[in-house]
Amino acid sequence: MSNSVNKSDFYYGTFLTKVLDNGNKPALVSKNDGRGIYKLTTNKEDYIVYIKYATNSNKNHRRWNFNYTDNNIEEIRKYIEEDKNIIFAYICAYDDFKNSEIAIAKLEELKECIDPECERNESNRVTIYKKPYSPVLRMYGTKRADIKEEKDNTIHLRRNRINEL
């Protein structure tokens, strides 16, 4: 094991700090630069948390894109087959970390945004959009547009959902 610190360690550490502050017990399952997987034990349930992060250097740009590779999809399928309670954490960070957010999505919400069988796109993508002063973060992806027939078509994720775990 190396002593070096990777960029991903800072972002996964953000999630870990928040869940530890809430009295929960996380344990590392697997990590690489593209994602982290943790087992999280709370006083309510046990979860597998699939974490991805994206950074944004422009404070006026409030969208973060998270790509899912074929390997990511295969990992998720394995957890589903094992009947694990899997949730997804998206670290939406600015370069200076100020006003960064953590979005938490359930499996059903992810399935509404990506389609592993999609032939039009080579990769699956989830986008988290932050609207100023809104109590929710908005989620959409390669399977779901952000606007449909001039209406908001995004999935609304409560900003405090991490505190509800």
Keyword list:
alpha+beta, five-stranded mixed β-sheet, 165 residues, four-stranded antiparallel β-sheet, Trna Endonuclease, Chain: A, domain 1
Explained architecture:
- This protein is of the alpha+beta class and 165 residues long.
- It has a single domain (7-164), classed as 3-Layer(aba) Sandwich (Trna Endonuclease, Chain: A, domain 1).
- Helix content is 19%, strand content 41%.
- It is built from 3 helices and 11 strands, in the order αββββαββαβββββ.
- It has helices spanning 7-21, 70-81, 107-111, and strands at residues 25-32, 35-41, 46-56, 63-68, 86-94, 101-106, 124-130, 136-141, 147-148, 151-152, 155-158.
- The strands form 3 sheets. The protein has a 5-stranded mixed sheet with strand order 1-2-3-5-6, sandwiched between helices. A 4-stranded antiparallel sheet has the order 4-7-8-11. The chain has a two-stranded antiparallel sheet with strand order 9-10.
- The longest helix is centred in the first third of the chain and has 15 residues, at 7-21.
- The protein starts with 6 loop residues before the first helix and ends in a 7-residue tail after the last strand.
- The model has no long low-confidence stretch (mean pLDDT 89).
